[in-house]
Structure formats: structure tokens, C-alpha cells
Amino acid sequence: MSDDHEHVHDEHCGHDHEEPDALTEALLRAQSGLKSDVQALVDVLDQAEVYVPLAEDVPGVSEDEQVEMGEELTFRPHMLLDAEHRAYAVAYTDPALVEPLLEELGWETSGGPLKFIHLPLRVALDLAMESVEGRDIEGLAFNPETDLELVLRRDEVASLAAGQALPLVGYVEQLPEGPDTETQVVEGAEPPPAELLSALESAKSRIRELTGYLVQTTFNPERDREPHLTITLFVSQPDLDREALAERVMEEASPHLPSPGYADILFKDSPN
Fold first, then answer.
1. Nearest CA-CA partner of 11 in 56, 68, 48
2. What are φ and ψ of residue 28, in 5° steps?
3. Alpha-carbon distance 270 to 160, whole Å?
4. What is the chain's pLDDT, residue by residue, as a tens digit (272 residues)?
């Protein structure tokens, strides 16, 4: 990652938030993953500020000194690694929120107590789209391992930086369908591939509890980034293991799914 940025520097951790600020409230809303809730982050983009933990002290800047935005600063932030050793940029809405992870992470600044650099949210988003040692940063983790955690993938960071809200796939997929987020059938869409229909028919012939299926192209602007297939499976037993059944069906069907390469699976009881 390039370490040259223009920022305000703030090294103290005594940041008092008795009431949630606008960014905190926006992060809480965005945890649903719904596009309209993610819009709250876009709405605070030009006002919000965050704190980024420093791996090394900033030369020539004393504690609590505030540096004009026009000055060039070189800094090295701490990063988080996921299970696959992919790097994520980190930002906190309040420096005190690092405490639950501080001992586990062993984070220090130049061998001493951890310090932070105080940045506009837009700059933190830019930071998460850069590269470190020749590899891309995978995304941005706000307030990791706290109730205010929000992890954004790289494409989600880029969309927010451009002022465009989009559904957050990792969060919205955990939500059940609700009456306020109804999915629409896309009229005039391309028919499903014949190979997919053949695979579903084969599964129906082998699985006694599967009595039928329906394949439609659907789109939900709150939850989806693009139209995709929804496969409704009609079953004869309402109390069967639906997850296991879906896995059995998709073993045959998945290789034949058209772009974007996935499908939602719904279940309905077979009509009497």
C-alpha cells in the first residue's frame, strides 16, 4: 500500500461519545445489508471521520498535534488478516473500540502504546482501495469484533467512495424475505438453459419428496445487484430437511447456472 496521504493527525484515545454520532448510526443501519440502509453511509460521507491504528509513529508530529490537510504525511497503518491471509484496512469510529482486540492483536505504534491517525471517511475508503506489497487490500473493516462492526468488500468500498449505495451481499443474504422487500419476476428475461432444466428434471425423478420446480429470473433492488435465477422447489413433506434437499438438487444444477452464477432456492408445499 502506498503510505502517502494528506490527513489530520490525532494520537489521543480520549474520545467521548455519549450519544451515537451520525457515522455510528449509519453503520448500525448498514448492517442489514439492504440498499436503502447502506444509503445512510453515503449520506454521511462528506461529514464523517474515523480513526486508523498506526503501526509506526508519524515523524515530526507530536502527540495531539493537528496537521493541516494540505500537508503530506507518510504513515503505516495496521491491517487485519482473514483466515486466507487477505488484508483488510481497519477504521474505528472511536479509538476506545479497539480495546476488546488490543491484547489479542498485540498492536503497538513504533514499539509503544497504540496511536491513531484521524481521517475523513472518504480518505479511509481510498486507503482500502490501494495496494500493499504488490497485493490489493480486500476491503475495509469498521470497528472489528464489536457490536458496531461492518466489513466491506473492495467493490463495496469503491461503490461507496463513488457515492453509490448497493446491497452488501455478506449481510443481506442473512436476512429472511419480508413484505417490505418483495422480489420481482423479470419480464422478458432469457429462458433458463436447457441443461439446467434437464438437471432439475433428473433430480425430480430421483428424489421422492421433490414433486416439481419452477425457474424464474428475479430481481430485488433492495437485496440484489443484478437479476438472477430463483428456483422454487415443490415438496411433498413440509417437515423435511430443506437445506439437505437444496444441496442435493444443486449438486446437479449448479454447473448449469447462467450469469451471475448463483440462484436463490425457495420451497413450497406441493398442492393437494
1. 56
2. -60, -45
3. 43
4. 334 333 333 444 444 444 569 999 999 999 999 999 999 999 999 999 999 999 998 776 544 444 344 456 567 889 998 888 889 999 999 999 999 888 898 999 999 999 998 889 998 998 888 876 667 889 999 999 999 999 999 999 999 999 999 999 889 878 766 544 577 888 889 999 999 999 999 999 999 999 999 999 998 888 888 898 999 999 998 888 999 999 999 999 999 999 988 888 999 987 75
Nearest CA-CA partner of 216 in 225, 226, 229, 227:
229
116 Cβ partners below 8 Å, 6+ apart? Answer: 10, 11, 13, 51, 52, 53, 54, 92, 95
Taking each helix axis as running N to C, give the angle between helix 35-43 and helix 154-161, from 0 to 180 degrees, rounded to the nearest 10: 50
Return the percent helix, strand and coil in the chain, to nearest 5.
30, 25, 45
> Counting beta carbons within 10 angstroms of the beta carbon of residue 169, is it exposed (0 to 12), middle (13 to 18) or buried (19 or more)?
middle
Q: In this structure, what C-alpha cell is assigned to residue 120?
A: 475523513
Report the SS3 class of residue 85. Answer: coil
How many C-beta atoms surround the C-beta of residue 229 within 10 A?
Answer: 22
